[in-house]
Amino acid sequence: MNTVPQIVPVSELRNKHSEVFGMLLKGPVVLAQRSRPAAVLVSVEQWDELQHYKHLALLDERSKRIDRGEFLTREEVEAGLRERGLL
What we know:
The structure is a single chain. The protein folds into 2 domains: 6-42, YefM-like fold (3-Layer(aba) Sandwich), CATH 3.40.1620; 45-83. It contains 4 helices and 3 strands. It has helices spanning 10-15, 17-23, 44-67, 74-83; strands at 6-9, 29-33, 36-41. Strands 1-2-3 form a 3-stranded mixed beta sheet. Strand 2 and strand 3 (36-41) form a beta hairpin. The longest helix is centred in the middle third of the chain and has 24 residues, at 44-67. The mean pLDDT is 87.
């Protein structure tokens, strides 16, 4: 079930940042500028979780390529190692 997004004007972030940061306990906060969505503020924990799922999706996609007999090029392997700070 999707929840109603928390929408806050950018000016409120500037003027009441403690309250806005407290809202992050309930989930992401959409920052609006001139009544239009401009950015999404997420907690560090939520960001880490998103990055984890992104990484898992990438690994799954690459595993499927290998299962189909498609192999990564040297450049793709090196790029993956660079992304992980291993090269």
